[in-house]
Amino acid sequence: MSGVFVSVFLILCPAPEDPVRVTVVIVLATDANNTIDPALAELAKQVQKRDPKLTGFTVHATEAKSIAIGDSATIELIDKQELKVTVTRAKDAAGKISMTIKPPGLENLTYGCVCDKFFPVVTPYRTKAGEVLIVAVMAKPCTLGKKPKDKEDAQPRNGWFPWLG
Amino acid sequence: MTTPAHTPENFPPELLAAYADNELDAVTRSRVEAYLAEHPEALAELTAQRAFGPGNALLWERAEVPEPSAAAWNVVRRGIGQAFNPPVPATTQTNRTFTRRTVAAILGIVAIAAVVAFLVVKPAAPQPPPSDAPKPVDVVNAAPVILEVAPPPRLVVPVSQPNPLEGIAVLPMASDDDVILHRVPDTGAGWLPVGHNPLPKTLLFATVEEVHLEDVKPCPAWPKGMPKMTNGPGTMPMIFAAKPR
């Protein structure tokens, strides 16, 4: 009897959602040089459409964290500035993951973005050297530690009764 | 000039005593012996001198100094006390008190005078020796010097540490999937032997169709409400809140 209840419970209760792997690229833009990191070529071109004086773009650091749905994480940027990231919703039907971020000098921003694509934020914070702090945030379903199953395990046995097969 | 012969009348008795104690020179000794030869009656006195001489050790060892009796000691003690504290007549009691006070006053004045004289005539304070001169060492007040003695050498037996690489022929290395890099600073490429750098070679940015704002808290960076995501057609959506220069 209890086995029936357990089966019904497992069917009705959805499985816990996997955490989201959030990647944050910390970029410093400056007008003191024109060195552009190759990975930031597209970002530099788009930012320069708004501020042509920013000619140099370098990656300060890159950090990735696995955040469960509904949880938050704080990422240290530079000069003790932080970025708070909250995964507010798992991937919806449109393939977008909803996140709320709190960049330095700004208030909370909640947005939805597809997986594996960065969303840049040019913050009002400037370092002591006058560099503009830019963060680019990307989220994707966490696949860390999940290795493809063995061929034997991938092939279903003959139904639910192994002794038959 | 010859020495006149001795007779019992003029023979000095100390010569016979000195002869008995063997303290004479050869000449005087021969004279004493000549006298004894001429006057054999003096041999009895010589025998008596020898009996009481220093050569009779047995006699002097047994001899004891006579001790005075207890009564004699008391008499002597009383005499000494009377000599130092003579009896004073009763009529001089006031004078004695006055005398004591006078003596005390005189002694006090003398003491004060001595102190004043010492302060006036006191020699100047000792000047410190020149810097180049060796400083005297106050041995009395100097703290005792404790010499640290090194402990005796100990026999140190090396303890054999287990080899952590024992039985490992080749170091097993983690694969890229075994390592998770959480944060990577921009220190150039090629310094991470294993692990996936979280920074992709090319950053793919979301297009207008792939990102949308859901909620924005009011912020001075966008006074009109929502921030402007794009800046014309063909531009990449982003939040641009950089301060104007």
Furnish the topology, listing elements before pairings.
The complex is a heterodimer of chains A (165) and B (245).
Chain A: H1 2-12, E1 20-30, H2 41-48, E2 56-67, E3 72-76, E4 82-89, E5 96-102, E6 109-114, E7 119-126, E8 132-141, H3 151-154
Antiparallel strand pairs in A: 1-2, 1-8, 3-4, 4-5, 5-6, 7-8
Chain B: H1 13-20, H2 26-38, H3 42-51, H4 57-62, H5 70-84, H6 93-121, E1 183-185, E2 211-216, E3 239-240
Characterization of the model:
The complex is a heterodimer of chains A (165) and B (245). Chain A has helices at residues 2-12, 41-48, 151-154, and strands at residues 20-30, 56-67, 72-76, 82-89, 96-102, 109-114, 119-126, 132-141. With 165 residues, chain A is mainly beta. Chain B is mainly α. Among the domains of chain B are: 14-62, no CATH class; 85-109 and 162-245, no CATH class. Chain B is 33% helix and 4% strand. Chain B has helices at 13-20, 26-38, 42-51, 57-62, 70-84, 93-121, and strands at 183-185, 211-216, 239-240. In chain B, helix 1 crosses helix 3 (42-51). The mean pLDDT of chain B is 76. Chains A and B meet through helix 2, strand 2, strand 5, strand 6 and strand 7 of A and strand 1, strand 2 and strand 3 of B.
Structural key phrases:
heterodimer; A: 165 residues; mainly beta; 4-stranded antiparallel β-sheet; 14% helix; globular; B: 245 residues; mainly alpha; 6 helices; elongated
Shape of chain B: elongated
- Low-pLDDT parts of chain A are 147-165
| Strand portion of chain B | under 5%
Question: What are the secondary-structure elements of chain B, in order, as H or E?
Answer: HHHHHHEEE
Helices and strands of chain A, in order, run as HEHEEEEEEEH
Number of DSSP-assigned strands of chain A: 8
Which protein chains make the most extensive interface, counting residues with beta carbons within 8 Å of the other chain's beta carbons?
Answer: A-B, 51 and 42 residues
| Helical content band of chain B | 25-40%
Uncertain regions of chain B: pLDDT < 50 for 5+ in a row?
Answer: none
Kindly report the spatial arrangement of strands forming the biggest sheet of chain A.
2-1-8-7
For the terminal residues of chain A, how far apart are their CA atoms? 28 Å
| Main sheet properties of chain B | none
Structural class of chain A: mainly beta
Q: Please, how many helices of chain A?
A: 3
**Which whole number gives the mean pLDDT of chain A?**
80
Structural class of the secondary structure composition of chain B?
mainly alpha
Counted beta strands of chain B: 3
Oligomer: heterodimer
Strand content of chain A: 35-45%
